Amino acid sequence: MDITGASALVTGGASGIGAAAARQLAAKGATVVVADLQAERGEALAEEIGGVFARVDVTDTAAIEAAVTAAAEIAPLRAVVNSAGIGWAQRTVGRDGEFGSAHDLEAYKRVIAINLVGTFDVTRLAATAMSRNEPDVDGCRGAICNLASVAAFDGQIGQAAYSSSKGGVVGMTLPVARDLAAVGIRLNTVAPGLIDTPIYGEGPDAEAFKAKLGESVLFPKRLGVPDELASMVVETITNSYLNGEVVRVDGGIRMPPR
């Protein structure tokens, strides 16, 4: 699918995998709406790639709808990447046997609200706008790529909330792709492994920690970089025969319990 002259929407687009995807989509000729809560970073990236920044909290339906509308007003919206998300780590049961030490339920709900419900909300609204596009030669009106995680399959101790949210993104891939086929929209999911993003910090200690983490990767024995993930994200958008699929990009890692 050719996205030259189209618009694209990337949530969580101000940093990490989202920013790398925004740059690569812009290089393919799309005008990218960088949707994020980080205004300073988002505005700087939008200026760099000739795009537009939109302040979006993916738990706010009105903000999502405004960003989708803005993208569709620039040019036909043909590409969407759902990269916004948060992490959380806590054991299900505390060590002291007290109810108050059990997993924070509000934290669980928040992770689900952002990572899963937010992804679906963006998907349903963006797909609605895409459904108005003129189809290409394959009858395609647009494509959506959602970001999951290998934690959807290999969730570690303490990852109940995060794995639940990303497992939900994986689980909705095929049924939503089947729904959207009726209006000529493809949907795929990319599941990253251990990726070198700012979450690990900076400096010698952070580099040593990342090197240790990389030892658990099958090959190559290092963390992935955002551009490696973004290239697969862009492939799911531009490859007209890729649909309803979940692709792990993880160096072959299978996460241990801890």
From TrEMBL:
Protein name in UniProt: NAD(P)-dependent dehydrogenase (Short-subunit alcohol dehydrogenase family)
Q: Which domain of life is it from?
A: Bacteria
**PROSITE patterns from the entry?**
ADH_SHORT
- What family does the Swiss-Prot or TrEMBL record give for this protein? Belongs to the short-chain dehydrogenases/reductases (SDR) family.
List the PANTHER family.
17-BETA-HYDROXYSTEROID DEHYDROGENASE 14-RELATED (PTHR43658:SF8), SHORT-CHAIN DEHYDROGENASE/REDUCTASE (PTHR43658)
Pfam entry (one): adh_short
Give the matching Gene3D superfamilies: NAD(P)-binding Rossmann-like Domain
Q: Which GO terms describe its molecular function?
A: oxidoreductase activity
Keyword entries, A-Z: Oxidoreductase
